[in-house]
Amino acid sequence: MHCPNCGKVVNKSLKYCKDCGERLSKAEEIDKDGTPGKMLDNILTTLFLVVMFGLGILVGLVAVLLGNDVKTEVVTTIVIAYLGAIFGICFMLARQVPKLIDARLKLNSQANDPEPHQLRPLTTAQLEEFREPVMSVTDHTTKTLDKVPFK
C-alpha cells in the first residue's frame, strides 16, 4: 500500500503515514463514527428532527395561546420570533452539509485511487557562479575632505 500524499510504501495496518502524516483511509472506514459520511447522516437527521419538532411545538403553542384568549398581535410576534429561531438553527446546520459532502467525496476518491502520486524529480541544474557583493553606498558617495591647516 502506498501513501496517497507522498507515495511512500506504508503498512496496511497503519491509519496515518509515518513520513507525511496523511490519513490513510479505507473504503470500509467511510461510514464509521466521526467520518464525514456518518456526520452528514447525523446532521441531516438532526435537521429533519429540528424542523418536525419545531413546527409541532409551534402549532401546540399557538393552540394553547389562542385557547387562553391571548391577543393575536402577541401570538403573531411569538410565532415570528419562534420561526426565526427555527430558521436560524436549520440554516446553521445546513451550512455544514456542503463541507461534509466535499470531505466524503474526497475520501471516496482517495479510496478508489491507490496509485501513488509522482514524486518531483531531483534538480540537476548547476549552481550559479559566485557573485561579487555590491559595493556599499558610502564607497561612492562619501567625499574625502581636504586637510585644514591649523594656525
Summarize the entry for a quick read.
The chain has 151 residues and is mainly alpha-helical.
Plain-language structure description:
It contains three helices and no strands. The protein is mainly alpha-helical. The protein has two domains: 1-28; 31-112. The radius of gyration is 34 Å and the shape is flat. 2% of the residues are buried. The model is unreliable at 27-31 (pLDDT under 50).
Please describe the structure with a list of short key phrases separated by commas or semicolons.
151 residues; single chain; mainly alpha; 2 domains; 52% helix; 3 helices
> How many strand units?
0
Q: What is the element string, with H for helices and E for strands?
A: HHH
Overall mean confidence score, pLDDT: 78
The largest sheet is: none
Total domain modules = 2
Radius of gyration: 34 Å
- The helix count comes to 3
**Low-confidence region ranges:** 27-31
* Shape estimate: flat
Estimated structural class: mainly alpha
Terminal Cα span: 92 Å
Q: Considering DSSP H and I runs of 4 or more, what fraction of the residues is helical?
A: 40-55%
Strand content: under 5%
What is the topological layout?
Layout: H1 36-67, H2 72-112, H3 137-141
Helix pairs in contact: 1-2
